[in-house]
Model the fold of this input.
Amino acid sequence: MIRVREASGALPIGVVRARGTSGLQAIATIRVRETDGLKTVYTDAGPGTFNVSAIPLAPNGAVASSFTSNVTTEVVTVTATGGVEPYTFAFRQTDSATGWSISVVGNGQARFTRSSVGQGQTWQADFKCEVTDAAGRKIDTPTIQATVTNYGGISMV
Done:
């Protein structure tokens, strides 16, 4: 595909494709822009599809204590595909629930902890992870909803 420059800016003049198991797939878009009438600038949009996923999307954590306790969820793992490696991962809370913290336990892995969970209490909070590829493109995971519970002390009869 070849297109010419319009007043609105640079348009694609080429698409780089690679043959994979599912046929030809676009992996880059080439754009040419004339910046001052004398220079030509080349930009590469990088590999086409950039996706992220998080497993599990609903991590849980629980204790059974008569005391107020800090409760931590299971590990959430974020995976990126496409884009340009390496990736960076930035977890953040997206709601206003208080008392929560994030512990990064590995590249793309985190646990969420709620402090001061009293017996019989359940708390929830929402999180996301922003993944950035080496080309500077950013994408968020779907919402990760963490839930923690303190079931209270267990009495033996």
Summary: Residues 1-48 form one domain. The chain has two domains: 1-48, 50-150.
